[in-house]
Specification:
- It holds the Pfam family 2OG-FeII_Oxy.
- By secondary structure, the protein is of the alpha+beta class.
- 24% of the residues lie in helices and 20% in strands.
- It has seven helices and 18 strands.
- The strands form five sheets. An eight-stranded mixed β-sheet has the order 1-2-14-11-16-9-6-3. A four-stranded antiparallel β-sheet has the order 10-15-12-13, with no helix packed on it. A two-stranded antiparallel sheet has the order 4-5.
- It is globular, with a radius of gyration of 20 Å.
- The chain starts with 28 loop residues before the first strand and ends in a 17-residue tail after the last helix.
């Protein structure tokens, strides 16, 4: 029996995944154990151990050459990962009517959803989104919708996020140092952060050559800390030659990528890179991205310390809350046009 796939999921020919994809020459794998042994220095001019110098240089090179890297020995307990994964599997195994009791809508973007679009093509996935700091404003309502079942989902998610958020702050400090900035240069932007977490579930797909779990895109926030299971499917566009490369799952690791906000803050030194998710016909896949995001009131622009006459600011200032709302509205329904991107704020130099 041939199962027909709804036209809404079908990618245009040039964006369909190839039958085979290389995982050779993949993204760097970085060992974070030095920060478990030594405190992160506060100033790039301070003396600190060679191990930390090497780590900061590795992170800078990965941000510049790839926009992506994997981290191991990161300090997040394996038990937290296992618990949140088990709860996510239980939630997504529920009947669809049960999951839709916590369905998100065009007012509140948090909760369950199974008809998201990327680049105006429907993604082959279902998601559950939640946020760390609930907020309500004229711009946005951000209120969590926790399901009744499984009852342990909320606690598992909240404890997991505490661990991952600590890691995200450490990575942010290492990235700041790699740009020759004080370690905590970015931290003030995150005081009323809009960090949010997504549980992703990708069912097996009868036409993995026509469909994507998530279409090609760049992350609009500052930093993404992603856990993926052993199935794999994350593809990154290699900056060196524009080829798609599969990120091979490494047990108990996180995949880190620079988002649009760091691209703007760094004035294009570190670039937010296009990525996508491929599906397969045999196995379901789970992943959990943590999106590290500043306060809605943050105005994003190149940092003064990284701008000079030879390297003028390449972006106009924009407000993160307004940008996020525009992106949320376009992801919620098919608008038939490109959603808001940072290149819309690029200055004509």
């Amino acid at each position: 029996m041939v199962i027909e796939v709804d036209q809404a999921f079908i990618q245009e020919a040039e964006h369909r995944p190839k039958p085979t994809i290389s995982d050779a020459g993949g993204i760097p794998v970085i060992d974070l154990s030095p920060i478990l042994r030594y405190p992160i220095p506060s100033d790039p001019a301070d003396p600190f151990p060679d191990e930390l110098s090497d780590l900061i240089a590795e992170i800078g090179a990965a941000c510049q050459d790839w926009g992506f890297f994997q981290v191991v020995n990161h300090g997040v307990e394996l038990e937290l990962l296992e618990r949140v994964q088990a709860a996510a599997r239980e939630f997504f195994a529920l009947p669809v009517e049960e999951k839709r009791r916590v369905k998100r809508d065009d007012v509140n973007p948090l909760g369950y959803y199974d008809t998201e679009h990327t680049k105006n093509v429907r993604d082959w996935k279902e998601v559950f989104d939640f946020i760390l700091n609930e907020s309500e404003s004229d711009l946005l309502q951000l209120k969590n919708q926790w399901p009744e079942y499984p009852p342990e989902l909320r606690e598992a998610c909240e404890e997991y996020v505490e661990g991952v958020q600590k890691l995200a702050y450490k990575l942010l400090e290492l990235i700041a140092l790699s740009l020759n900035l004080p370690a905590k240069r970015f931290n003030g932007f995150f005081e009323d952060s809009t960090n949010f977490v997504r549980l992703n579930h990708y069912n097996p797909c009868p036409s993995p050559d026509l469909v994507l779990g998530v279409g090609r895109h760049k992350d609009s926030r500052a930093l993404t800390v992603l856990y993926q299971d052993e199935v794999g499917g994350l593809d990154v566009k290699r900056k060196a030659d524009g080829e798609w490369v599969r990120v091979k799952p490494t047990p108990n690791s996180f995949i880190i990528n620079v988002g649009d906000i760091i691209q703007v803050w760094s004035n294009d030194k570190y670039e937010s890179v296009e990525h996508r998710v491929s599906v397969n016909s045999e196995k379901e896949r789970f992943s959990i991205p943590f999106f590290f995001s500043p306060a809605l009131s943050t105005n994003v622009k190149p940092l003064e310390e990284l701008v000079n006459e030879e390297n003028p600011a390449r972006y106009e200032e924009y407000n993160w809350g307004e940008f996020f709302k525009a992106r949320k509205d376009s992801n919620f329904k098919k608008l038939g046009k490109e959603n808001l991107q940072i290149y819309h704020f690029r200055k004509k130099v």
